[in-house]
Amino acid sequence: MRNYLSGFARPMTLAAALGATTALVAPAAAQQGDVLPTINVNATRLINDNIVGASTSVITAEEINRASNLTLQEIIARVPGAQLQNFYGGVSGIATTVDLRGFGAFAAANTLVLINGRRINDIDLAGVDFTTVPRDSIERIEVTRGNSGAVLYGDNAVGGVINIITKTGAATGKPVSARAEAGVGSFNTREGSISLTTQSGPWSTAVFANSLTTDGYRENNKQTQRNAVGEIRYIGPQFSAFLNLSADDQHLGLPGARYVNPALGINELVTDPRGATTPRDYADKQGLNATAGFTYRLSDTVDLIVDGGVRSKKQQGAFFSPFAEAYVDSALQTWSVTPRLDIRSDAFGLRSRILTGLDYYDAAYDQTRSQFRNSAPIHIYNLSQRSFATYWQQTLGLSPATDFSYGGRWQLTSLSARDKFNPLAPGAYDAEHTPLDTSENNYALHIGLDHRINGNVAVFARAARAFRTPNVDERLATGPGFDINFNPIPQTFALKTQTSFDVEGGVRLAYGPLNVQSSLYYMELTNEIHFDPVNFYNYNLDPTRRYGSETSASFRINDDFLLKGSIAYTRAQFREGQFAGNDVPLVSRLTGSAGFSWNIMQKQLVLDATARFWSARYMDNDQANKQGKIPANATVDLKLGGEIDRFFWSVSVNNLFNTAYYDYAVASAYTPGAFNAYPLPGRTYLLKAGFKL
Question: Cα 34 from chain centroid?
């Protein structure tokens, strides 16, 4: 690959490239009526109903359905402060990362993603694969920004928490409900989805499945994908239970980057933006998941909730260059059990709700690396990680207008890591990692306050501490691996745990048709984990900081027309060390969106429009802030659709003005002005039609 030969950062580590098969217009649902809702203490861990004092946005199923042919990540990017890193511009959003509050290249590891309150972040660097969640299965998405979610959910909740709440058969209120949809679009895209829900007395079932095939914008960018989710649920007066099963299968071609070097007159972004630097690279992934749980009412004020599950993920990748080949095969299996108590009773004469419980996760990760598909492995990595945590969070209603919450989490994480190195294997050139057995204690804290001044104005504030332990891919690439004479140095798997502390305050306004939420925040981080994309190893950064503001607003002109938008200022900065005062790469300082929803003829004809914009950002590998920036840009997306009786249709146009842009690039370590970038599609179309029963 050219980026190896020219001193470039590889855009993703080998494992992260495998993870590419997995990795405001509507900032929140508009409040109904003309006053703020009554403050309550009904927050649960299962459904993240506004952590007290935190900035939370809710994206409803209707907003997801009305959006143009946007990926889930693009829909979430309407939330103020959310940014994207997109490698291939696929119609499904594959390899697109959501960045909450400016973590750049390591956004995926600092944003915690949940499904129905259960974490789905794995201990590798692949990141959460939003494409495995069928859009039709989503009831709403709750985005809580900042690190207050760390008490309830633990690791990775530094930038924020994204909680995807799925639909159940019981929610439809119908004995049988079905939906089918098919679509065709640009780049030979073909997709289809079906869903079926049933309900009979206390029993309900739900099944969602979808399939996608597309050639992709780039050469060697073909994607095929199949996902399915099924659930059976029982709801009784004292006892309820569920079983959820899901599976996914993916293939993705990896076209590599486009090279730009002004000194040599090379600009592949202009001359061949759709070409492939790596026309044979690919990544495959297969996933199986099972989750079961029950809720038992111990008394009128106490519920026992027990969930458990297993996730299995297998990944295969092949990487070719003129001088070498590399094959990677990995398997990750995670078992978990998370019992907890939900206690609702008065304390000292105050309304009170306590959430307390235990979290246990046991993950085993195995990976082989070889030069050729059937040759002897160079490395065989075996890592096992166990974490045990206990937490307590209490919310008190100090008055009818004031809620106060506090909580803490203690977590013990144990890791055992081994590397079996074969110096005689084809392509072997480095050294064996030093074995590592370690255990460490970490803690998270949260304190928050919400106060409603009157029916139109409320204020909120919070402070929190969070942590992030290194994942297995980061430990595999600890270094440096060579000395100045290029002699291999045994690596150690060792990295320090990242910690953060942040404070935030804001206001919520509701005046008739106008709803506004605005906040300011400040965060300090220590031992932030970072990848050196030139020397290919991870290390702990000098201390960093984030600060900024986030505002979302909606204005309902009438029952048929809604205006909505957001704007955010995000500053990610080194606060000590050789780059003190510089920006952290891959973070735009200014982002925002604006748009409208218009029911032209009630449900028969509906128009939605979204414009999203972002300012320039420094490229990856440019902590010195000396190279050129990824340019500022904006896109406009439209969707015209309608529903007649049981039939529905839509026509979507994304990137209406055919903007040529990219939002990820890697600066050369040695050549000023030279970089590798990942161009994204211009104008695209998608036509969809379906029916429901």
Answer: 33
Give domain limits for the chain.
Answer: 2-176+261-267+299-692
What's the mean pLDDT in 437-456?
94
In degrees, to the nearest 5, what angle opens at C-alpha 121 toward C-alphas 224 and 195? 50
Spatial separation of the C-alpha atoms in residues 114 and 526, rounded to whole Å: 25
Q: Per-residue pLDDT averaged across 237-243, rounded?
A: 95
How far is 511 from 335, CA to CA, in rounded Å? Answer: 48
| CA–CA gap between residue 274 and residue 464 (Å, rounded) | 45
Residue 70 has pLDDT above 80, yes or no: no
- pLDDT averaged over the chain? 86
Residues in the chain: 693
**CB contact set of 331 (below 8 Å; sequence gap of 6+):** 312, 313, 314, 315, 365, 366, 367
Top-level CATH class of 2-176+261-267+299-692? mainly beta
Candidates 356, 298, 291; CA nearest to 119 is 291
Average pLDDT over residues 390-409: 95
Q: Which pLDDT does position 466 carry in this prediction? A: 96
3-state DSSP call for residue 682?
coil
Distance, C-alpha 517 to centroid of its chain: 22
Q: 447: which strand partners?
A: 406, 463
pLDDT score at 495: 81
Q: Taking 60 as the threshold, does the pLDDT of residue 152 lie above it? A: yes
**What pTM value is reported for the model?**
0.88
**123: helix, coil or strand?**
coil
Tokens of 579: 């780059």
Cα–Cα distance between 419 and 307 in angstroms, integer?
33
Whether residue 638 contacts residue 651, with contact meaning beta carbons closer than 8 Å, is answered with: no
In DSSP terms, which residues pair with 379 in a beta bridge?
369, 421
DSSP letter for each residue of 201-218: TTEEEEEEEEEEEE--SS
